[in-house]
Amino acid sequence: MTLTNPLTRIAAWTMTPLAAVSLAIGVPAIAQSSTTLASVQSHLKLTTSMTADFVQTDRNGQRLNGKLTLKRPGKIRFQYQKDVPLLIVGDGSSLTVIDYEVRQVQRWPVKNSPLGALLDPDRDLTKYAKVVPTGSNDVLSVEVKDKKRPEYGTITMVFVRDGSAPGGLRLRGWVALDSQNNRTRIDLSNQKFNVAVADSAFRWTDPRPNKRGR
User: Fold this and answer.
1) Which of 24, 59, 136, 197 could form a disulfide with 49 if both were Cys (CB 3.0 to 4.6 A apart)?
2) 33: left (phi over 0), alpha (psi -120 to 50) or beta
3) 71 φ, ψ to 5°?
4) Within the chain, how many helices (H) and strands (E) appear?
């Protein structure tokens, strides 16, 4: 297997129901857009950590399950089901893809990934994000991209209103689009916010000969 990008390694992904929510037709009022971005920014700042189950679905309907662990700023871990020899870890500065089947490791700066918007609560969304109408007051969709660096890709985050979640929002999932127009869909469930997460959760074992884990 050959690694190309942390968000396109497993398969070429396609838009599915979660992503379709973020593509509803319409143009929000400026005031409504500003309020939505402020709500999302508040949620990101108030969420210092999160664990969740995730499902990743490809264009053929193949589903991969796993456990997501997030700790802001910058740390994330996608632990896939046991039969998938792949691990994705963000350690605060780099996003690393470890392929244990072929003993290959690739690394990108977190800011170069669409996930950067999700991992950096201090990133000013008003400079990079726009609200995408969903047709529901209970669902918020925000698309984030750096127009000056399109090679970083785009992430569209989808939130649902939840009074028990930080800032009154719960991250339902996201759709990432990389510079090669490959889409990745992630659905989240069983979210737990602001739980204790040790930094050791973002360490990994290096499969390359004569290398040590990080």
Assistant:
1) 197
2) alpha
3) -145, 115
4) 4, 11
What is the spatial distance between Cα 57 and Cα 13, in angstroms, rounded to a whole number?
7
Model confidence, pTM: 0.81
**What pLDDT, on a 0 to 100 scale, did the predictor assign at position 93?**
87
The encoded tokens of residue 190 equal 């069983």
**41 Cβ contact partners less than 8 Å away, ≥ 6 residues apart:** 121, 125
Q: Which pLDDT band holds residue 59 (cuts at 50, 70, 90)? A: low
Contacts of residue 190, Cβ cutoff 8 Å, sequence gap at least 6? 52, 53
**What is the C-alpha to C-alpha distance for residues 96 and 85, in angstroms, rounded to an integer?**
14
> Shortest CA distance to 187 belongs to which of 8, 49, 57, 81?
57
Cβ neighbours around 27 below 10 Å, total: 9
Q: How far from chain centre, in Å, is Cα 129?
A: 15
Q: Show the tokens assigned to 152.
A: 């970083």
> Is the C-alpha dihedral spanning 20, 26, 27, 32 positive or negative?
negative
- Nearest 5°: CA angle at 86, between 85 and 89? 145
Q: From the CB of residue 145, how many other CB atoms can be counted at a distance below 10 Å?
A: 18
Q: Round to whole Å and give the CA distance between 83 and 85.
A: 6
